Amino acid sequence: MTQDEPADLTGTADERAARLVQLETAGRTLPAEWLRRQLASALADWAADETQLDIVIESRVDY
Questions:
Q1: Is the alpha carbon torsion for 6, 28, 37, 20 positive or negative?
Q2: Disulfide: which of 2, 16, 39, 60 matches 9 by Cβ 3.0-4.6 Å?
Q3: Would you say residue 14 has pLDDT above 80?
Q4: What is the spatial distance between Cα 49 and Cα 42, in angstroms, rounded to a whole number?
Q5: d(Cα 47, Cα 63) in Å, to the nearest integer?
Q6: Is the pLDDT assigned to residue 20 strictly greater than 80?
C-alpha cells in the first residue's frame, strides 16, 4: 500500500460497498493494484462463505 492508496476495504459486503461509494464520491482516483487487491479479498471472502454454506447444507442432508 502506498500513501496515495486508501486503506483496504473491510467489514461486511454492504460496508465495503458503502466505503467504495464514499471514495468515488470524494473524487479519489483508485489505483488499479488497489482495486485488484479489493477484488481478490472480496472473492476470497465469497469463496469462504460458499464453503461454509456447502458444509451446512451437507450436514442437513446427512440427517
A1: positive
A2: 16
A3: yes
A4: 11
A5: 25
A6: yes
The C-alpha cell at 32 is 488499479
Q: Distance between CA 40 and CA 38 in Å, rounded?
A: 5
Contact call for residues 41 and 8 (beta carbons, < 8 A) = yes
> What is the per-residue pLDDT across 30-45, written as a single tens digit (0 to 9) for each?
999 999 999 999 999 9
How long is the chain? 63
pLDDT band, residue 2 (cuts 50/70/90): low
Cα–Cα dist 7/3, whole Å: 9
